[in-house]
Structures are given as C-alpha cells and as structure tokens.
C-alpha cells in the first residue's frame, strides 16, 4: 500500500475530524476564560484532546472488529486488514500516554482531567460500552469536557462560569443522543458478538429513539439559554443567525430520531450542526478579544 493511502487509512481509523472538533471546543473554553494563557503552553493544550481522541477511536475499532464484521462495516481499516491489529493497539496506547504527559505541562487540574478521560476512553472500549447507558454517558462526557478543559487550562481553577457549564451540558446531551443512535445502529453486531446489554437491546429501538429525540431537544434548550444568558460575548446578527438555523436543524433531527428515519444521516448532520453552533460562539468570543 502506498504511503499516502496508508496515511489515509490511519486518518480513517482515528476519525481525525472528531479530534479537531474537540480542539475547537477547547479553543472556545479558552476564549470564555477571563485570563490569557502563555503562548508556549498552547501547544500542549491542543495536543492533549487531539492525542487522547485519536487513541480512543483507534481502541474503538480495535475492540469492535467482530462487531463491525457482523454489522458489515467492511470499510473499517482493521476489518480490511489494511492496518495490523497489534500496530493499532500499540499506537493507541502510545497516544493516550502522550496525551497524559502533555497535560502535565499545563496545570494540575488539566492533568487530572486528561488522566481521567484517558482511563475512561480505555475502559469504555474494553468493557463499559457493553453496559446500558454507561458507555453512552462516558462518550458524551468525553465530547463535552472540551469546554471545561479549555477553561481550566487558562484559569487553573474549577470555578466554572454559567457560559462554560451551559456548553458542557448542551454538548453532553447532544453527545448522548448521538451515542444512543449509534447503539441502535449497532444492535445486531453488539448482541451477536459481544453479548452487550446496550439501551436499545434492553428497551427496544423505538423507546431508545424517543429518548435520543428528547436529548436533542434538551440540547436546543441549553443552547438557547446560552444565547440569552451569556452577555459577555460580542453577539452579532451573523452569529445569532447561524445558531438559530442550526437549532432549527436540530429540531428536525429530533423528529427524524423519533421516527427512526436515516440514523447515519442524523449522526453526521448533528455533528456538522454542532460545529456550526461552535463556530458562531467562537466568532462572538473572538470579536470580544479583537
């Protein structure tokens, strides 16, 4: 396999776009902090979420090879054997450890968060994903922690303002909704290969889809609270319009989730719209510092 194609397979295995989105969340957390951060520390602040995300997603595919085969996911690099299993596992552990090491160059609170979520990432892929809701909650927390991590990296304090808390809970709800949708998609492979007891397997996909729909609506509620309650950002018509359009899309996704209509599309569109909302908040926050 050519070098460029082999690199592409690694990028596919790591879901690099998720690492970039997490880094964007960290950047927003930094912008919401009242204090600035030394320039030389920024490298480590962004390296931590990238490294831990990359390692976590490699482990996800490593422990899910049999499930992916059962679900006919023949596009996965480990299923296709374009990347060797033992190489993937070694790289994943190395990335998690590097993420932890980098966190110690920030502050003790950032290091504590990095260690906790590196461990949770491993435990999730190894066992927790088989438990009802537990695995889904872990992934949602990993998705939401980017905002507090950025804030903590700048302030060295766990005293979070309302802006960071609202974003954390909003991201948690949308992450949990997306993970429930993913569990519905993986029902066949999870029950066949890992004897998992995920939420859809226990209560059925219809009820699970209903809860995912409610979580999308909760996300919309928290983002609206953020929009109306956070007054220390330089809101403009463009940023507000981006948020409102994206929230309208999330209302549509909530309905599609309830109807079990296009689950893969729901996951992709929800991630894209989350990025758009984060972009709008970033633009409002960035203008504050101009």
Report on this model:
This protein is an all-alpha fold and 290 residues long. The chain has helices spanning 3-14, 16-32, 39-63, 65-70, 77-80, 85-103, 108-126, 134-144, 146-155, 162-185, 187-193, 199-203, 205-229, 237-258, 263-289. The protein has a single domain (3-289), classed as Tetracycline Repressor, domain 2 (Orthogonal Bundle). Helix 2 packs parallel to helix 15, helix 8 crosses helix 10 (162-185) and helix 10 (162-185) runs antiparallel to helix 13. The chain is globular and about 50 Å long.
Integer tally of domains: 1
Largest sheet: none
Beta-strand segment tally: 0
What's the helical proportion of residues? over 70%
CATH superfamily: UbiA prenyltransferase
CATH C-level label: Mainly Alpha
Radius of gyration: 19 Å
Short description:
The protein has helices spanning 3-14, 16-32, 39-63, 65-70, 77-80, 85-103, 108-126, 134-144, 146-155, 162-185, 187-193, 199-203, 205-229, 237-258, 263-289. By secondary structure, it is mainly alpha-helical. Helix 9 runs antiparallel to helix 10 (162-185).
Question: Can you lay out the helices and strands and say which pair or pack?
Answer:
Layout lengths: L2 H12 L1 H17 L6 H25 L1 H6 L6 H4 L4 H19 L4 H19 L7 H11 L1 H10 L6 H24 L1 H7 L5 H5 L1 H25 L7 H22 L4 H27 L1
Question: Which terms summarize this structure?
Answer:
single chain; 290 residues; mainly alpha; Tetracycline Repressor, domain 2
């Amino acid at each position: 396999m050519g070098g460029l194609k082999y690199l592409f397979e690694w990028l596919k295995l790591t879901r690099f776009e998720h690492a970039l989105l997490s880094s964007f969340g960290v950047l927003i957390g930094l912008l919401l902090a009242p204090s600035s951060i030394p320039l030389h520390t920024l490298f480590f602040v962004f390296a931590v979420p990238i490294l831990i995300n990359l390692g976590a997603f490699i482990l996800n595919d490593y422990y899910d090879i049999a499930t992916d085969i059962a679900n006919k996911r023949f596009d996965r690099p480990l299923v296709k054997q374009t990347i060797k299993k033992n190489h993937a596992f070694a790289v994943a552990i190395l990335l998690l450890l590097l993420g932890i090491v980098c966190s110690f160059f920030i502050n003790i609170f950032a290091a504590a968060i990095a260690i906790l979520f590196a461990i949770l990432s491993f435990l999730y892929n190894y066992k927790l994903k088989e438990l009802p809701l537990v695995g889904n909650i872990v992934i949602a927390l990993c998705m939401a922690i980017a905002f507090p991590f950025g804030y903590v990296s700048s302030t060295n304090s766990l005293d979070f303002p309302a802006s960071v808390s609202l974003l954390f809970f909003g991201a948690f709800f949308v992450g949990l909704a997306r993970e429930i949708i993913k569990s519905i998609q993986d029902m066949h492979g999870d029950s066949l290969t890992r004897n998992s007891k995920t939420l859809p397997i226990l209560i059925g996909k219809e009820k699970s889809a209903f809860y995912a729909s409610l979580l999308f609506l909760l996300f919309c509620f928290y983002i609206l609270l953020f929009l109306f309650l956070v007054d220390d950002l330089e809101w403009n018509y463009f940023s507000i319009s981006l948020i409102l359009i994206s929230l309208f899309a999330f209302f549509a996704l909530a309905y599609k989730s309830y109807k079990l209509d296009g689950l893969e599309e729901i996951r992709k569109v929800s991630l894209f719209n989350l990025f758009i909302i984060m972009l709008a908040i970033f633009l409002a926050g960035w203008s504050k510092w101009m």
